[in-house]
Amino acid sequence: FNPDRRLAHHIHLPSQLLRAIRFGVPRILLVRHPRDATLSGIVADAGVVGPGLLLRAYIDFHRRLLPSISEIPVCRFEELIDAPSVVVSRLNAAFATDFESVLLSAADRAALRTEMKTWEVGRVYLPHMHAVATAEKERLKAAFEPAVEGHPLLGLAGELPRELLRLSARA
Q1: Dist CA 30 CA 25 (whole Å)
Q2: 3-state SS, residue 70
Q3: Partners of residue 29 on adjacent β-strands
Q4: How far apart are CA 19 and CA 5, in angstroms?
Q5: pLDDT tens digits, 19-73
Q6: Of 17, 65, 126, 134, which sits most exposed with the smallest number of CB within 10 A?
Q7: CA 78, 84, 88, 89 torsion: positive or negative?
Q8: pTM for the structure as a whole
Q9: CA 54 to chain centre
Q10: Alpha helices in 45-131 (DSSP H)
Q11: How many of the other CB atoms lie within 10 Å of CB of 126?
C-alpha cells in the first residue's frame, strides 16, 4: 500500500497505458473478469448503462492493448485484492523501481477497508457508489447478473484476459 502514489485515473483508457509506454512510465494492467467488471460498471452507474455497452468497451480496451502487451506487466484483479504486494513486486521487477512492497495480513486488509470507509465520510454518495462492498451493491449485482451472464459478448470478452495473461507471461 503506497498512500502517496497517484493513479492515472479510475476511468480506464488504453491510451493511458500506451502513453506510459511511450514515456517510459511504470505501468501495470489489472485484468478483471469481464463478468465482474461489467457488473461493477452497471452498479456504479445505477443500472443506467447496460451490459452490451460495457462489454463492448471491455473488448475494445483489451484489444487495443494486445499489440503492446509485451511492454505491460499484467496482474489479475484478484491478486491485487488478495495480496497488493504482488502488484508492487511486478512493477519493481519490470521497471527496476523501488516502490515499497508491504505484505498485508488479513487484519491489515480489514483495517484498510475500514479506513477506506472513513475517506467517504462527509461525501455525498448513493449506496451503490461506495468503494468497498455494501449490501446495496451486492443486491444490485445480483439483480443484473442474469443479463450479464446471458449476454452474447461475454464469451468473447472472457477470452481477452486469458490471451493478455498468456502473452504477458511470455514477455
Answers
A1: 16
A2: helix
A3: 74
A4: 18
A5: 999 999 999 999 999 999 999 888 888 778 899 999 999 999 999 999 999 999 9
A6: 126
A7: negative
A8: 0.81
A9: 14
A10: 51-65, 77-82, 84-95, 106-119
A11: 9
Print burial letters for 78-94: b (CB count within 10 Å at least 16), e (below 16). ebbeebbbebbebbeeb
Distance separating alpha carbons of residues 120 and 75, to the nearest angstrom: 27
Set of cell numbers at residue 128: 451503490
C-alpha cell at 88: 508492487
Q: For the chain, what percent of residues have pLDDT higher than 90? A: 52
Alpha carbon of residue 80 to chain centroid: 9
Contact 75, 165 (CB under 8 A): no
Residue in the block written with cell 477497508: 113
Contact indicator for 160, 64 with CB cutoff of 8 Å:
no
Whose cell is 462492498? That residue is 133
What cell was used for 3? 498512500
Give the contacts of 29 (CB within 8 A, at least 6 positions apart): 17, 65, 69, 72, 73, 74, 75, 164, 168
What are residue 139's phi and psi, to 5 degrees?
-65, -45
